[in-house]
């Protein structure tokens, strides 16, 4: 375990890396024994620092929700992070100069109508407590050199959270079979990846159930009105200046944006 002071200074290093667009060597290079618990303590400090700076948490996000990714990272549980107000883009333009090496992935996000408190939360509980589902594009942008990190590193780095585009079409969860909702992700007119909601732990509602159960171990719960990104349906695609990104969801509309300098 690290000291409180170390949690804070490591969090500050990651906040500075984000705002200065300065890639950092992964934390585990210096602290090889960094645990997942330590990593969430660093993430907590990162959230506290940003709140002190005047930023507001507008959503939670789940990551590593595909079985393939969990196997690759040798974990049996996804990871979660926080999305802040300044990360939400509604202009249709992603500003590359604010970022390091962004990638985009297509997701489904939930807006809760009721609190959800674990343990023992299931996908059915989540669907019953959900007000709407919306399409979302997440921009991930690791603060680590060349996206090189271990599981604790990426948790400490707020799961690479960077920007989000939230679609305007809201649907009730019972209007769609969310595991069967298909998504295509194209860049400059070329299809880069596609998938269905089932790519997220069999059903995106399972991702929220896992989040509620993970939070309950830390004495926390999900709140009515909260927006939650459930994890990538498509793989993350690297972005460059000039790219035009277009994603389409069955029954949930589309999102487009351009990457500008
Ligand atoms: O799915 C996710 O949002 C995980 C993001 C962290 C992994 C990465 O930066 O590649
Ligand atoms: Mg994601």
Automatic annotation (TrEMBL):
GO cellular component: cytoplasm
Gene3D superfamilies with a match to the protein in the record: Fumarylacetoacetase-like, C-terminal domain (3.90.850.10)
Keywords, comma-separated and alphabetical: Lyase
GO MF term list: 2-oxopent-4-enoate hydratase activity
Keyword field contains Ribonucleoprotein: no
Domain Fumarylacetoacetase-like C-terminal: 102-259
One Pfam family here: FAA_hydrolase
Name the record gives this protein: 4-oxalocrotonate decarboxylase
Organism: Brevibacillus aydinogluensis
Gene: dmpH
């Amino acid at each position: 375990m690290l000291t409180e002071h170390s949690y804070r200074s490591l969090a500050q290093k990651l906040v500075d890396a984000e705002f200065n667009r300065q890639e950092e060597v992964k934390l585990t290079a210096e602290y090889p024994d960094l645990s997942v618990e330590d990593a969430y303590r660093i993430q907590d400090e990162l959230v506290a620092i940003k709140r002190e700076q005047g930023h507001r948490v507008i959503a939670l996000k789940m990551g590593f929700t595909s079985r393939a990714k969990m196997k690759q990272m040798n974990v049996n549980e996804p990871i979660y992070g926080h999305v802040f107000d300044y990360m939400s883009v509604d202009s249709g333009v992603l500003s590359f100069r604010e970022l390091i090496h962004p990638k985009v992935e297509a997701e489904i996000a939930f807006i809760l109508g009721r609190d959800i408190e674990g343990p023992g939360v299931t996908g059915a509980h989540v669907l019953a407590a959900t007000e709407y589902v919306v399409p979302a594009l997440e921009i991930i942008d690791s603060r680590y050199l060349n996206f090189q990190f271990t599981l604790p590193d990426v948790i400490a780095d707020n799961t690479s959270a960077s920007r989000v585009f939230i679609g305007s079409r809201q649907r009730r969860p019972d209007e769609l079979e969310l595991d069967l909702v298909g998504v295509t992700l194209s860049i400059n007119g070329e299809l880069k990846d596609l998938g269905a909601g089932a790519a997220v732990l069999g059903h995106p509602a399972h991702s929220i159930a896992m989040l509620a159960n993970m939070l309950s171990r830390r004495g926390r719960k999900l709140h009515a009105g909260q927006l939650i990104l459930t994890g990538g349906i498509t793989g993350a695609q690297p972005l460059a200046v000039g790219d035009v990104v277009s994603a389409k969801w069955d029954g949930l509309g589309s999102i487009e944006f351009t990457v500008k300098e």
